[in-house]
């Protein structure tokens, strides 16, 4: 996949997830969260129920709790803020 196409895909996923800004008890499908993490170079390394452990070389892991194939939108928001702080978004 070309760099430009990859960037456009990440931007589309970001906009899609941004539409789902957290409100009380809102959740996001784990499949969307997985694609979002992977689009920024993070890999799903392990599953420690109920957590999914995402890793990236040189970074501390992210542990994301998953219940009924859903992730609380607050975790998505925190990851997006992390990426924004680093200038990756």
In short:
This protein has 3 helices and 5 strands. By secondary structure, it is α+β, with helices and mostly antiparallel strands. The chain has one domain (3-85).
Write up what this structure looks like:
This protein is an alpha+beta fold and 89 residues long. The protein has one domain (3-85). 44% of the residues lie in helices and 24% in strands. It has 3 helices and 5 strands. It has helices at 3-18, 30-39, 73-85; strands spanning 27-29, 43-48, 51-55, 62-65, 70-72. It has a 3-stranded antiparallel beta sheet with strand order 2-3-4, covered by helices on one side. A two-stranded antiparallel sheet has the order 1-5. Helix 1 (3-18) runs antiparallel to helix 2. The longest helix has 16 residues, at 3-18. The chain is globular, with a radius of gyration of 13 Å. The model has no long low-confidence stretch (mean pLDDT 85).
